[in-house]
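tokens incoming
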């Protein structure tokens, strides 16, 4: 098992395994289901289940599970063994087609945002044959969707699959008008995943990391990221050993782990896979996050996926590289070789521009979590204002079309759609701006607002749906046009005119941009999660998402509720952790050090030695102790107050406006105390220990 090509995908029930283990009739029928969504009949399901079971048992599996993605944002699994009693008192290993296709986890404890109260108490899981089954540990995992009995989606996979279908349907209408052959159009994603690695023995000493995934106290160490010596720096042997094992584990699961490097902050790293179909990329990213954490433990490390594990140090995000392509592999965001392909490219490009402008709030909502609020707009990640970067070249093309003026680089006088050949936009000319939330990078868009722990499902659901909506409007118009070319030209010009406010090629970190964006261009600045989430239920958003059958109205209400609930709970857990740490760890430690200083002062005084330093320090510590106590009491009160909120939206606002500021107030004297308390008295590892502890 040394050669990667030999063991890649060895734990996946993939096409190769299917071909070798299924009869050609069953294989063809399953393939038809996978590629075109055809219904799977029971005899086929039984045959597939049989083959899966045999294969899984040969590879050491004893259990199977329907692996799904509830609204908690992580994955869920309930393991059942294959055993079934036989009359002779022993067992046989059994797995039926019915068990493969449908499961009924007692899922009443998963968040449903009210869906279950109005519909059925129990949910069921249904196999997603487009994502391969795989073996994790001793369990055969079957990727599934999770729904209520009323058919309401209780997970992230179902709406994602629906959004892919919505985009497929509308994109095919457009391609037909251009005479482009295609059986289906799907979106592809390559998510770049950032993470931190810290020594496990230090992690275990900090209850903030244990309970919340981020540090709630800690002074910036003498050295942070200012030297830029970590970014792309040589990888330390211990980290390299971790990455090697991580890659092996991912490759066995058929995950195309490709690029790895050190990131900007000390102890921060990145992993990017090769892009693949969106729902598979989503499953793979969830698995990647899980395996990153598991493998870290084996190396005495902890992998932090939180968006902001350390204050004053860059946090972690996830870049969602997204494109649309046909079944034959034509990338619709790539300018083609012929003028006609270029007109088609420009139309798809415009569809994205229009989608991002019309549904900027949905894109912001799709990345809204308590953790990500710390990054967006903090000059380390894009601002909370959504805009698009196109690069100078493409921008000039659009300007020429909009104004009917000559395109600057071309010899021809006017940009004529369907006549002119566009220049090739390669990465080098399009990828210079790293501050944009949504950047065109040659043949794909890179959505950069995602937090490192976000499921990429949400962002892609919104992106696919919004683009499907633009395409629908275009198709409705073009299908009835008497002169296709002139209607096309008009529509592209109109899109550019109507939506150019969303295009911004400058520095997204500049405060002046935020002012221009909001005051001059009228773009939305939804700074925090409670600012953003209620817009999910705005009429235009509900209409678009229900029209394309991506969500029902009840499902949207449930998402709104759950996301806000999640925000509130996360921050309240943080606040309670701060209270505990400050009262039970920091205050006793500072008092102990103070007592040590006071006794030193008394001893010196008894001998008639001057004790100015001790007196000054003891006074300072005393002041800090009082300040910590006062701030802790105020935070405690603020936590109690939250319970009087009238509803979840109100609770979100209270947390934003009172709880979070009180948390900062408590942190301040604690971090100051860290500065003057002797290291051996400080109760937990410092930023310096954590960030520079892996050697
Ligand atoms: P960056 O320069 O942003 O760090 P990387 O090379 O690390 O870029 O990652 C780029 C990601 O984009 C990879 O996951 C890659 O597979 C993905 N990608 C490349 N082409 C496409 C495409 N056409 N559609 C979607 N994703 C793509
Ligand atoms: Mg990137």
């Amino acid at each position: 098992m040394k050669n990667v090509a030999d063991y890649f995908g060895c734990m996946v029930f993939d096409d190769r395994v299917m071909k070798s283990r299924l009869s050609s009739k069953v294989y063809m029928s399953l393939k038809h289901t996978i590629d075109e969504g055809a219904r799977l009949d029971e005899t086929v399901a039984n045959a597939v289940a049989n083959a899966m079971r045999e294969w899984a048992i040969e590879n050491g599996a004893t259990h199977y599970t329907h692996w799904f993605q509830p609204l908690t944002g992580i994955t869920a699994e309930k393991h059942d063994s294959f055993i079934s009693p036989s009359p002779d008192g022993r067992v046989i290993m059994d797995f039926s087609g019915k068990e493969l296709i449908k499961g009924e986890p007692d899922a009443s404890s998963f968040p449903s945002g009210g869906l279950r109260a109005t519909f059925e108490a129990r949910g069921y899981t249904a196999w997603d044959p487009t994502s391969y089954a795989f073996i994790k540990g001793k369990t055969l995992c079957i990727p599934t969707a999770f729904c209520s009995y009323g058919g309401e989606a209780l997970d992230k996979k179902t709406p994602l699959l629906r959004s892919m279908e919505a985009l497929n349907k509308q994109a095919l209408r457009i391609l037909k008008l251009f005479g482009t052959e295609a059986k289906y159009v799907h979106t592809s994603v390559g998510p770049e995943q950032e993470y931190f690695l810290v020594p496990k023995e230090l992690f275990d000493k900090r209850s903030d990391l244990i309970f919340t995934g981020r540090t709630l106290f800690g002074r910036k160490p003498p050295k942070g990221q200012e030297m830029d010596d970590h970014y792309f720096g040589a990888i330390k042997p211990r980290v390299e050993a971790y990455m090697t094992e991580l890659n092996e584990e991912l490759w066995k699961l058929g995950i195309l782990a490709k690029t790895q490097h050190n990131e900007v902050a000390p102890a921060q790293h990145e992993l990017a896979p090769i892009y693949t179909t969106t729902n598979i990329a989503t499953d793979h990213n969830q698995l990647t996050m899980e395996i990153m954490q598991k493998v870290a433990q084996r190396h005495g490390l902890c992998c932090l996926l939180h968006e902001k594990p350390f204050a004053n140090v860059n946090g972690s995000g996830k870049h969602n590289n997204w494109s649309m392509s046909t079944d034959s592999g034509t990338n619709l965001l790539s300018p083609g070789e012929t003028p006609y392909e270029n007109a088609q490219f420009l139309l798809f490009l415009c569809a994205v521009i229009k989608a991002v402008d019309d549904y900027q709030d949905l894109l912001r909502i799709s990345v809204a979590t308590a953790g990500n609020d710390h990054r967006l707009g903090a000059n380390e990640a894009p601002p909370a204002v959504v805009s698009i970067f196109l690069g100078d070249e493409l921008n000039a093309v659009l300007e020429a079309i909009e104004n009917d003026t000559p395109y600057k680089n071309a010899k021809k006088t006017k940009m004529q759609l369907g006549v002119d050949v566009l220049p090739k936009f390669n990465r080098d000319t399009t990828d210079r701006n790293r501050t944009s939330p949504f950047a065109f990078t040659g043949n794909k868009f890179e959505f950069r607002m995602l937090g490192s722990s976000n499921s990429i499902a949400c962002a892609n659901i919104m992106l696919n749906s919004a683009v499907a909506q633009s395409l629908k409007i275009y198709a409705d118009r073009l299908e009835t046009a008497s002169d296709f070319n002139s209607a096309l030209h008009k529509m592209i010009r109109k899109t550019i005119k109507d939506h150019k406010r969303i295009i911004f090629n400058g520095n997204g970190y500049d405060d002046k941009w935020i002012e221009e964006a909001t005051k001059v261009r009228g773009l939305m600045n939804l700074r925090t999660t409670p600012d953003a989430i209620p817009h999910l239920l705005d009429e235009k958003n509900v209409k678009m998402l229900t029209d394309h059958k991506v969500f029902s109205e009840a499902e949207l209400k449930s998402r709104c509720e759950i996301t806000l609930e999640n925000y509130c709970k996360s921050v309240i857990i943080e606040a309670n952790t701060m209270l505990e740490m400050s009262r039970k760890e920091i205050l006793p430690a500072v008092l102990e050090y103070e007592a040590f200083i006071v006794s030193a002062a008394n001893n010196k005084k008894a001998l008639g030695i001057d004790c100015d330093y001790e007196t000054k320090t003891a006074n300072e510590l005393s002041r800090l102790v009082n300040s910590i106590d006062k701030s802790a009491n105020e935070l405690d009160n603020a936590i109690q107050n939250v319970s009087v909120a009238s509803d979840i939206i109100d609770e979100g606002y209270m947390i934003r406006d009172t709880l979070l500021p009180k948390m900062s107030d408590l942190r301040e004297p604690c971090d100051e105390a860290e500065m003057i308390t002797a290291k051996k008295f400080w109760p937990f590892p410092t930023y310096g220990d954590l960030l520079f502890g892996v050697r």
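note: Residues 188-190, 192, 259, 272-275, 319, 321-323, 331, 443-444, 446 surround adenosine-5'-diphosphate (ligand 1) (CB under 6 Å).
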